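Intended use. Records such as the Fe-S cluster assembly protein SufD entry shown here are meant for training and evaluating sequence-to-structure methods. They are not intended to support clinical decisions.
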Amino acid sequence: MTKEAIKLFSQAHAEPAWLSDLRQVAFEKIETLGLPTIERVKFHRWNLGDGTIAENDLSANVPDFTALGDNPKLVQVGTQTVFEQLSPELAEAGVVFTDFYTALEEIPEVVERYLTKAVAADTDKLAAYHTAYFNSGAVLYVPDNVEINVPVEGIFYQDSESNVPFNKHVLIVTGKNAKLNYLERFESIGAGSEKASANITVEVIAGAGSQIKFAAIDRLGQQVTTYMSRRGSLGANAGIDWAIGVMNEGNVVADFDSDLYGDGSYADMKVVALSSGKQIQGIDTRVTNYGRHSIGNILQHGVILEKGTLTFNGIGHIIKGAKGADAQQESRVLMLSDQARSDANPILLIDENDVTAGHAASIGQVDPEDMYYLMSRGLDKATAERLVVRGFLGAVLTEIPVKEARDEMIDGIEEKLNKR
């Protein structure tokens, strides 16, 4: 871990002085900062970065693009961009969706203004590490009053035959009164088994009055140990509808956060998660109400198979001065094995009186009566369990507004269940 290696990387990519300096400052802070706090998850000895800043060679595992539709999309394999698609109409309207370094050339002022605005480099040790060492990324910019109703897709593949750290930064910025429908995938491809780390940050800057539907499906492989940070920063009357499917195979800690800075802003966070094998997944989902009459909702449902571990921490924080704010959360976990481990921790931090807040949390196993009923109708145990899981997660899935994301999450759930 040397400053010189980071400096050489910056020079090789012709990074502007402000970005090169930002990396150097972040590097200096790595050793002074603590790890993020993920309650009841012991991840301090995980390999979440080995101090390597490098790039992948162009992979042989490039997917087939013939099946992809004509909606806007960007596809990357490792650090390489292999496909970009944006209609002339959106380009003429000022929309930019491209890799990080092309965005530095096309809209340098946007990148400089908003990079690390949602996730500051000195937030914690892993944020500082990410800022110093991220090796690729993407930028999506939607100007004021531009509406994009078709899904804009960001597809980011981790090559399972490469041990290059998967340190990806995605920056999404929407202007005033813009509308965006965004679908994001992080997925491992290839038949390799190289162990790798992933440190991923997704920043969403929602301008005043903008409305964002953000759906994501995470399906990184068993060989990848991951830290995932997704955070929204919302202006007045802005809103983000989050829908996230956590379907990874390896160990994962994740922060899904929304900062409601603007009056009247809202964040609606829906999370579906499955843990299996000996996998450990710890998920912090947080909404912080700064603005008056801001609204934060968290709905999390998870299923644990075999010896898996899943922890949900739901955190609602209403800051002093956020009068009329509302913070609600629900976290529920279903265990399909006596060897499964789970926590569902509701945390409410209320610093203002004129507010509304509430929480619900539960952990349980499949109801024997439900299983008896289904099996008495001729279903085998595995099929009966799948139906119970579908019903349990369906309460969240039916609320996901993006059909493409909903269908893909269902496919991911079926795939995990069929591996048992």
